[in-house]
Every structure is written in structure tokens, then in C-alpha cells.
Write a structure and sequence with these properties.
150 residues, Arc Repressor Mutant, subunit A, three-stranded antiparallel β-sheet
């Protein structure tokens, strides 16, 4: 590992942290906690609803965190639960009309911002960014889990 490797890792992670902070600040400006915003974002685009497990997988949050968020959103009238005809053990979570109205402006704005930021890159740059980010994430995952290295 070179000094340049360490410098580039620092810069990449700094940019990632800057993005996370930007999302967190945006959610707060809209009166929403970041973890709740991630759940609302997932549900907003899931017209057929999602199970809590699917929300966990999509947002990379724990079952306990998602369950608490869903309970709070349900209490506020923003989500409803319905029986899952494919698997009765897991209920489907849907945004209510009030939940859709609550989430629409912030979710659509963040999606537009992400899409527009990506469109400012060439198709080749987009592919390279995605491929290298995926590769970095997989490498990091292996190392964090101790699959490679000391």
C-alpha cells in the first residue's frame, strides 16, 4: 500500500461522508430523520408495497430500526400494513395518500438531484463511476469482514 493509496482512500471516503451529510441535512430541513427519509424514499417508488425485510435490504438498516420507523409512520397515518398474499408471515407496507403527499416533494427533489448530477457525467464516466464504486465496496466489504488481510 502506497502513500497515494492512503490519500485516495481518504479522499474517496471524505466525498462519501460529504454525500451522507448532505442527505442527512436535506432530510432534517424537511423535518424528517435520515433513516425515516430512506424508508419513505423506498416506499414512495414501491407502488406494490414492500415487506419490512425488503425495506431493510433496500435501505441497509436493521430490522429493529425499520420496525420502529414503520410503527411511527403508521401512528402518523403515513403508512398502512396489509396482509401479504404470498407470505402471510410478512405484512406489506404501503404509503397512504397522506404519506405520499408528505414524502412527495422531498423524495422527488432528491431523486431529480441524483439523476441530474449523474446526467452531468458522460455515459462512459457514469459506467466507470458505477463499476469502480461497486468494486471498491466489494473490496471493502471483504476486508471489513476479515475475509482478506490480517
Amino acid at each position: 500500500m502506497t502513500k497515494e493509496d492512503r490519500r485516495n482512500a481518504f479522499l474517496y471516503c471524505k466525498f462519501r461522508d460529504e454525500q451522507f451529510a448532505m442527505y442527512d441535512e436535506y432530510a432534517k430541513q424537511n423535518g424528517i430523520l435520515m433513516n425515516t427519509f430512506l424508508v419513505l424514499n423506498a416506499l414512495f417508488y414501491a407502488k406494490e408495497g414492500m415487506t419490512q425485510k425488503e425495506i431493510c435490504d433496500r435501505t441497509f438498516q436493521s430490522k429493529q430500526t425499520v420496525n420502529l420507523i414503520i410503527k411511527n409512520l403508521q401512528k402518523d397515518g403515513y403508512v398502512t400494513l396489509a396482509e401479504n398474499t404470498d407470505d402471510r408471515r410478512n405484512k406489506m407496507v404501503f404509503l397512504t395518500d397522506a404519506g405520499r403527499a408528505y414524502a412527495e416533494k422531498p423524495v422527488r427533489h432528491i431523486t431529480w438531484s441524483e439523476d441530474t448530477a449523474m446526467s452531468m457525467l458522460t455515459p462512459e464516466e457514469q459506467t466507470l463511476l458505477i463499476d469502480l464504486s461497486r468494486r471498491f465496496t466489494r473490496n471493502l466489504e471483504k476486508l471489513v469482514k476479515g475475509e482478506d488481510g490480517p
